[in-house]
Amino acid sequence: MSKSIILVTGGTGYIGSHTVVALQQAGFEAVIIDNLSNSTAEVVDGIARITGARPHFERVDCCDRHAVAAVFEKYPGITAVIHFAASKAVGESVEKPLLYYRNNLVSLLNVVEEMLAHAVLSIVFSSSCTVYGQPAALPVTEDAPVQPALSPYGNTKQICEEILRDTAASCALQGVLLRYFNPVGAHPSAEIGEWPVGVPQNLVPFITQTAAGVRKELSVFGNDYHTPDGSCIRDYINVVDLARAHVQAVNYLLGGKNKTAMDVFNIGTGKGLSVLELVSAFQEATGVKIPYKITGRRAGDIEQVWANPGKAHAVLGWHAQESIEDTLRSAWKWEKKVRGIEQ
Ligand code: WQD
Q1: Domains and CATH numbers, the chain
Q2: Picking from 1-15, 137-151, 235-249, 309-323, which range would have the lowest pLDDT averaged per residue?
Q3: Is the shortest distance between the CB of 90 and ligand 1 below 6 Å?
Q4: Ligand 1, from 203, 229, 275, 278: best to mutate by most atoms within 8 Å of Cβ?
Q5: d(CA 134, CA 301)
Q6: Per residue in 57-81, pLDDT tens?
Q7: Which of 27, 93, 333, 341 could form a disulfide with 153 if both were Cys (CB 3.0 to 4.6 A apart)?
Q8: How far apart are CA 208 and CA 67, in angstroms?
Q9: Ligand 1 binding pocket includes 292 (Cβ within 6 Å)
């Protein structure tokens, strides 16, 4: 029997590449489309080295409807789509809102329209816990209200969720919205990982670059929040665990197990860690000291959020497995590889 083919948009990106590995290891065949705006084609080599199989790769911008259509025509065996392709820098989205609305909304519209035109009816969408804003109750469950977005980036995630819900209500499209908490770490082989452009905005890449001596010190954005140590709390989810959630979501949809046309799941560990706790965990896991200073709060930061991932466990059979120590060690191993630091 030939393998089921999954189309992965944004498949050379950080989460996309780990998901392609997980798909291939689970027996699926993957077709990646990516415009390489924030990744390189070498990622495909890394995936091939890990899995022993080379995914199909098409350099396609999802905003180009004809090019997306051509991919569905070239691979008639596609059974489901995992849609990652999107711009994701929160700060940049405030500077360039139209770029974000165009990229993130037009990509989704093109992908879904071509799915329906080719009778591909299952989609897994890359959403974010950012839709909850600061939840009133923690840990946050999927039925917590979606709050007005704090950035155009966050708003595109909310609008994409609505587009998918409305479409699923109108036709045979079915899907899963995965709301990620804070994805961190790298594949344990260090063949693939996160590759931030310029100064990292996210905490873990900034820490690993500080450990590598690329940055002088970490700025901890605020220690006067209403949390036990005053720094913000997040739910840091290992990217390999997160990748596995996509495979389980695909199996759930293709297995016809879903009861709702567009279901939603939190993908987090269920445990909150403060910025200062994360810095300590990194130091303990790697033995590398991170110089840091406390600075003012960063505009738009949520004080504290962590997941109740119970629904993903009960319905998808998914739960996070990796420890934060192993996760941070994997991030450090990747940083060392990228910087040519001896392992
Ligand atoms: C985590 C914590 C910072 C850097 C963002 C997006 C979200 C998602 C992931 C996208 C916060 C603190 C950070 C630093 C620090 N989406 N921090 N010093 O803000 O939770 O989520 O990225 O792809 O939509 O909003 O993640 O890693 O930026 O910050 O003290 O140099 O670390 O204040 O408390 P965040 P983050």
Answers
A1: 5-184+236-267 (3.40.50.720), 203-234+270-339 (3.90.25.10)
A2: 1-15
A3: yes
A4: 203
A5: 9
A6: 999 999 999 999 999 999 999 999 9
A7: 93
A8: 37
A9: no
Q: How confident is the model at residue 210 (pLDDT cuts 50, 70, 90)?
A: very high
Q: Average pLDDT of 240-253?
A: 98
Residue 71: strand, helix, or coil: helix
Under DSSP, is residue 50 helix (H, G, I), strand (E, B) or coil? helix
For ligand 1, the distance from its centroid to the CA atom of residue 118, given in whole angstroms, is: 38
Q: Is the peptide bond preceding residue 76 cis, with omega within 30 degrees of 0?
A: no
Name all contacts of 109-112 with Cβ < 8 Å and 24+ positions apart: 109/163, 110/62, 110/63, 110/64, 110/65, 110/68, 111/9, 111/62, 111/68, 111/81, 111/83, 111/85, 112/163, 112/164, 112/167, 112/173
User: Which pLDDT does position 266 carry in this prediction?
Assistant: 98
d(CA 293, CA 191): 32
CA of 42 to the centre of ligand 1 (A): 27
> pTM above the 0.70 mark?
yes
**Is the minimum distance from the CB of 202 to ligand 1 under 6 angstroms?**
yes
Would you place residue 1 in the very low, low, confident or very high pLDDT band (cuts 50, 70, 90)? low
Mutate to test the pocket of ligand 1, among 90, 202, 207 (most ligand atoms within 8 A of CB): 202
153 is an active site residue: yes
Which protein residue's CA is at the shortest distance from atom 5 of ligand 1?
202
Query: Would you state the structure tokens that stand for residue 279, as one six-digit string?
Result: 């810095």
**Residue found by looking up tokens 């390189």 in the block:** 40
